[in-house]
Amino acid sequence: MSTSTTAPRPARALPPLMQVSDAAAERLRGLYAGGQEGKLLRVAVNTKGCSGMAYDLTWADAPGPGDEVVTTNGVTVLVDRKATLFLIGTTMDYEVKAMSAGFTFVNPNEKGRCGCGESFHV
């Protein structure tokens, strides 16, 4: 009787939970140094809108027990642990347009967005 063993396959690297673009990092540094000094931005996903889910940004004094701490591009953000499956591989950006400015998300898990762009589904 012959036995053979095969070496286990090396684990594939997981994509980062979330990235922060240069523009978003610059904006966050400004917010952290100004009126939101000592606070951290928390990113969550809530049930909302016509497509079912929406990004929810709030300020927190410190990480909570349900937060993942993500440090990327020189800034730290919190990610609600319940949102991690929806956000894996997401990049948070900051866009300035003619009539608006704000954080945006490039999320590879999104399958579609509503017409107004306020909500998404996976």
TrEMBL record:
<dbReference type="GO" id="GO:0005737">
    <property type="term" value="C:cytoplasm"/>
</dbReference>
<dbReference type="InterPro" id="IPR017870">
    <property type="entry name" value="FeS_cluster_insertion_CS"/>
</dbReference>
<dbReference type="GO" id="GO:0051537">
    <property type="term" value="F:2 iron, 2 sulfur cluster binding"/>
</dbReference>
<dbReference type="InterPro" id="IPR000361">
    <property type="entry name" value="ATAP_core_dom"/>
</dbReference>
<dbReference type="InterPro" id="IPR050322">
    <property type="entry name" value="Fe-S_cluster_asmbl/transfer"/>
</dbReference>
<feature type="domain" description="Core">
    <location>
        <begin position="18"/>
        <end position="118"/>
    </location>
</feature>
<comment type="similarity">
    <text>Belongs to the HesB/IscA family.</text>
</comment>
<dbReference type="InterPro" id="IPR016092">
    <property type="entry name" value="ATAP"/>
</dbReference>
<dbReference type="InterPro" id="IPR035903">
    <property type="entry name" value="HesB-like_dom_sf"/>
</dbReference>
<dbReference type="Pfam" id="PF01521">
    <property type="entry name" value="Fe-S_biosyn"/>
</dbReference>
<protein>
    <submittedName>
        <fullName>Iron-sulfur cluster assembly accessory protein</fullName>
    </submittedName>
</protein>
<dbReference type="GO" id="GO:0016226">
    <property type="term" value="P:iron-sulfur cluster assembly"/>
</dbReference>
